[in-house]
Write a structure and sequence with these properties.
about 300 residues; alpha+beta; about 25% helix; globular
Length: about 300
């Protein structure tokens, strides 16, 4: 376990900007995580669980609570093969790119969509992450959660995916604050060459169309029903618009990027400008996909 006081959250989030946390606790085992969460429950202090930080933005200033996250002890992937079906049991910090590579090694299909999504499997479950027509609900069988019981004590339990309230970029975990410890994926056997070709095709699409060379949180806005956020933003004439060091990417209008010296205030001001302009022009309200702490 590693405890960091006055932790700069720019080091732990993909936007590479933001304020500080009064305390950051990095747990390397399930027992450490359970211990920390029970201590927090007893003290009743404010807390926040942070995954890989690829979809989270901290406001400038100080988060007056404890940020809990997980370390290297949570990145293992176990292959469970019972002859008829194959499952991948992935600890919460395992990166989606690493899981996609393991699926390829085992000739398992269905996870290609997630190969280029930044972040970990825990965060992907938390928000039912998706891309290119696939999302976590399609492949998730169950999760192990650290969850408070009726007495307020945190304990480990297994929950089927059907009980997670998964919908577009949403799970019940966003309300309950339960913590994903591991996720079990059920993936069908496939042709390794075809899987490899699909991974290469999606990688080519991402590198050619997304501003991967800049810090960001991936797609910034949720897709409004019946529309595409990026097209609305581009049609509103906002392509390349900047506020301070934050910019609507000229490569993909669905991305807000940090061009090098953005503050969280820059990003939030740009978000509001985009939301207001799109609403004024098209009557569509854009909602952020990014979790903004302190807003």
């Amino acid at each position: 376990m590693n405890i960091i006081d006055n932790a700069p959250m720019s080091k732990y989030t993909s936007f590479r900007c933001g304020g500080r946390a009064k305390k950051l606790v990095i747990c390397d085992s399930v027992s450490e995580l359970e211990q920390v969460m029970n201590e927090i429950a007893e003290s009743k202090e404010e807390y926040l669980f942070l995954g890989n930080g690829s979809n989270t933005l901290f406001l400038d200033g100080v988060y007056d609570g404890t940020v809990v996250t997980i370390g290297k002890g949570f990145d293992e992937i176990e292959v469970i093969d019972d002859g008829d079906e194959v499952r991948l049991k992935c600890m919460a910090a395992a990166l989606l790119s690493k899981i996609a590579k393991k699926a390829l090694e085992e000739s398992l299909s269905g996870f290609e969509f997630a190969s280029g999504i930044p972040g970990s499997i825990g965060g992907a479950v938390f928000m039912n992450a998706g891309a290119y027509g696939g999302e976590m609900i399609d492949v998730l069988e169950s999760v192990e959660l650290l969850s408070p019981n009726a007495d307020g004590k945190w304990e480990l339990k297994t929950v089927p995916a059907d009980n997670l309230g998964l919908s577009y970029r949403h799970s019940r975990l966003q309300e309950t604050k339960e913590i994903v410890v591991s996720a079990t994926l059920r993936l069908p056997r496939g042709d390794r060459t075809e899987i490899e070709e699909k991974l290469a095709e999606l990688t080519k699409k991402r590198t050619s169309k997304q501003p991967l060379e800049f810090p960001s949180a991936g797609s910034f806005f949720k897709r409004p029903e019946g529309y595409f956020a990026a097209k609305l933003i581009e049609d509103a004439g906002l392509k390349g618009l900047s506020v301070g060091g934050a910019q609507v990417s000229s490569k993909h209008c669905g991305f807000v990027i940090n061009t090098g010296n953005a503050t969280t205030e820059d990003i939030v001001d740009l978000m509001h400008l985009v939301q207001n302009t799109v609403f004024d022009k098209f009557g569509v309200k854009l909602e952020p996909e990014v979790r903004i702490i302190g807003l």
